[in-house]
Amino acid sequence: xxxxxxxxxxxxxxxxxxxxxxxxxxxxxxxxxxxxxxxxxxxxxxxxxxxxxxxxxxxxxxxxxxxxxxxxxxxxxxxxxxxxxxxxxxxxxxxxxxxxxxxxxxxxxxxxxxxxxxxxxxxxxxxxxxxxxxxxxxxxxxxxxxxxxxxxxxxxxxxxxxxxxxxxxxxxxxxxxxxxxxxxxxxxxxxxxxxxxxxxxxxxxxxxxxxxxxxxxxxxxxxxxxxxxxxxxxxxxxxxxxxxxxxxxxxxxxxxxxxxxxxxxxxxxxxxxxxxxxxxxxxxxxxxxxxxxxxxxxxxxxxxxxxxxxxxxxxx
Length: 316
Description:
The protein is of the alpha/beta class. It has helices at residues 2-18, 22-67, 69-79, 97-107, 126-136, 158-161, 195-212, 232-235, 238-250, 266-274, 294-303; strands at residues 85-89, 110-117, 142-147, 166-169, 173-175, 181-183, 217-218, 254-258, 279-282. The chain folds into two domains: 2-58; 68-309, TIM Barrel. It is built from eleven helices and nine strands. It has a seven-stranded parallel sheet. A two-stranded antiparallel ribbon has the order 5-6. The N and C termini lie far apart (80 Å).
């Protein structure tokens, strides 16, 4: 009661000090209180909005994992000892390493990033090969050299090649018996005089690559040119499959299960597993779309592949 009794006296003194009439001083205090309250409410609103946004982001990631059955299956496989790694990813179509790592976080897929080296590609000698390695080696991914064409073995030194965590190639570029250099993914550069003869030459090239080139993975494993793809099952006979599988096992070369082309077939994979072959998973993306290894994951289940059936490099 004493405080209340003395309150007008205190206000009179403060008003005198501020050189304002008492009623103006009271108005000023009220305005300042309202401003302080408004600022406090604005700050509270901003904090609440930020928390809500973070909650939505976290919930969105959780919902994506729940709604996407492939991502859910990846989590289950990893919990059971599988290492889910896409060993055939590229920084193409404007994709950055940071974007790739964010995709890895969202999907649970680890990555090996491959750099194309050979005739017609940016990497053509030791200096360009090592410059690429130095640019990206600090990122938490495997570093892969994708060897292009059959000439690559004479273009790079053993020491430079050995700097990468693993090396892979395919037989999509080769020269036929008539001396015609083919790139099988380029329809205008493919020459097929006889389908069976073409297939026998292709199988021979694949076997030769596995036996003679220092690679860890054979990728795009049973790829056929566009004109032959409708006959994939008929052309990849048991005998042709077995020749490739035997070469892979004999030379300790892993066979890629490619998610983009959906090859090799389940029949091939089952034969290869029975023969003791090892496998890898890969996308071979040509743009920012890395996907989720859907076909590769499906083949794990359909073909009964186990963690020990997969290739695993040593990070250097």
